[in-house]
Amino acid sequence: MDTRSQLSAARDRLDAKDLEGAMAIYGEILEIQGDDAEVLATVSGDLGATGHITELVQLVAPLYDPDRHGSAAGLNLMQAYLAAGDTDAARHMLDLLVALDRPELHERLRG
Q1: Residue 109's CB: how many other CB atoms inside 10 A?
Q2: Residue 98 to residues 50, 79, 88, Cα–Cα distance (Å)
């Protein structure tokens, strides 16, 4: 099964309220594709959109590097930290994202 199919299967599991099944699939994907920016953005986006903030942080935070992975997963992590009430981690993530110095992020990060 290719990565896109695996990501889709994991999202289907989340939609079916099978967090354990989704996490198993995400774990397999991240073992192989954990350095792929699009994969991290998708995993973090899916987990965040379905309210699985703790799992998002557990899976994505250890792998995330702003220089390699860009802003999408970082924004998802920052939102997760804010939702969890971890303002120190959210501020650190904000600082990392600002340091990317990407014009398209400035307006979004200003708030």
Answers
A1: 15
A2: 27, 15, 15
Tens digit of each residue's pLDDT (9 = 90 or more) over 81-92:
999 999 999 999
- Measured CA to CA, the distance from residue 51 to residue 33 in angstroms comes to 23
Report pTM: 0.89
Three-class SS state of 101: coil
Q: Inter-axis angle of helices 37-49 and 72-83, to 10 degrees?
A: 30
Helical H runs in the chain? Answer: 3-15, 19-33, 37-49, 53-60, 66-69, 72-83, 87-99, 103-110
Residues 6 or more apart in contact with residue 83 via CB below 8 angstroms = 48, 53
Say how far apart CA 48 and CA 28 lie, in whole Å.
19
d(CA 68, CA 60) in angstroms, rounded, equals 13
Q: φ, ψ for residue 65 (rounded to 5)?
A: -135, 115
| Four-residue CA torsion sign, 5, 54, 104, 35 | negative
> By the 8 A CB rule, do 40 and 69 touch?
yes
